Amino acid sequence: LIGAGVAGLLTAWTLANRGVAVSIVDKVAPLAGASGNPRALLAPNMTPIHHVYEHLHSIGYLYSGRLYRYFNRQAALQQTPPILEQTGALDLLIKTNIGTVQIADYPNEMATTVTIEEAQQLSGLKTKDLTDNLYLPKSGLVNPQALKTLILKHSNINYQQLSVTDIKEAANKVTVIGEKESGIDGQSSVTICADNIVICAAYESHQLDKRIVECRTIRGQLSWFTPTAEQVAGLPKLPLKYSGYCAPFIGQSGDAEINNIRDNEPQFLLGASFVDADASIDIREEENQQNYDKLLEDIPELSNVLPDDTSAWQARAGVRTQTIDYHPLVGRLAQSRRIWTLSAMGAKGYALAPICAEALADMMLGCFTPLSAVMLGRLSPNRARLHKA
Ligand SMILES: Cc1cc2nc3c(=O)[nH]c(=O)nc-3n(C[C@H](O)[C@H](O)[C@H](O)COP(=O)(O)OP(=O)(O)OC[C@H]3O[C@@H](n4cnc5c(N)ncnc54)[C@H](O)[C@@H]3O)c2cc1C
Known about the structure:
Elements: H1 6-17, E1 22-26, E2 40-42, H2 56-77, E3 84-85, E4 89-91, H3 100-103, H4 116-123, E5 134-136, E6 140-142, H5 144-152, E7 157-161, E8 163-169, E9 174-182, E10 186-194, E11 197-199, H6 205-208, E12 216-225, H7 229-234, E13 240-241, E14 245-250, H8 255-258, E15 266-271, E16 275-276, H9 285-298, E17 314-322, E18 329-332, E19 339-343, H10 349-364, H11 373-379, H12 384-388
Helix pairs in contact: 1-5, 1-10, 2-10
Bound molecules: flavin-adenine dinucleotide.
């Protein structure tokens, strides 16, 4: 597997769990790319209920929640932080294509509308009009670092740092060639032979194999800060979706490995900016300001509690990889027997990767997949629509 973001990690786990010996490599480190935010919001893109069976976001949301709750039980046994903090989430229905009438068709344990008083109590908001709302009891925050730690402990998974530069397919094997960082000599060349390879390198997948379409790169920056006890009391109490999203969380052991977050300290995150056709990941002060402005525009009452000096905020920028039809790329490459991809997860990788990895592992092992043939056609990396453009 090339690329150790959420797509590569979930594919590794799914194959390893079926007894396959997996090597996973990353040119930098696991979670070095878009997947390394301090927390990812697990919340569905809602659709009218009659579309759910063919709606990848809904299927992915339901499946990933179930898998992350299973991972939580493993993490509890190992006394490591939970993978999914199931906080529930409140969507203020500012940017959505579903209304309260359609929400009423859903089972309440998945999606419901709560009374204004309940919404105020859940969120801690006092003056915002919460008449129309979508409450998602099973939503929450995924802890990427906790997920990575759990997956890489699997005895069938071997991780190493390697920047892949070339892939060669022969009738009976695939050879991956790359450069490995080495302390003394700088870099050394490494060759790995495998039965199959899966390219999970997000927008860089195209550089590794031109049959993978070049995708849109949409830069995003997530901001966070450490609130005082007084600010904690006035900030939202659970994740909120507005035209962006925000959430309180507590730093867990391991967070500091990838982000500047201390154990047991309260944090408040908000984001995320959108900059089209930009694949740079420098931290920009103006995007912290945009995240601040967006939150206050939608929820003005937070101006009393949100610290207005955004220059002291922490931030992390990443790149969303998006196809023109918004579907990920899942499957075997054209005219190949052994090269597969799972990429283009867009803005919802934590909801989509588990079900896509499940489908991909089944395709690789010749089993029936949990997704319909129609859906697999929509996800195929070789679908005509992408290659005509
Ligand atoms: C600001 C922001 C906020 C987001 N918020 C959410 C959210 O709340 N919820 C959610 O579900 N999703 C969210 N997303 C989207 C989510 O982060 C992505 O969909 C997901 O991380 C994509 O995962 P990936 O594994 O495909 O890519 P990445 O995580 O980018 O992983 C690709 C990996 O490939 C490696 N790689 C590249 N080239 C090579 C090579 N030649 N050799 C070896 N390795 C290579 C890279 O180093 C990288 O680690 C957000 C994205 C951004 C940018």
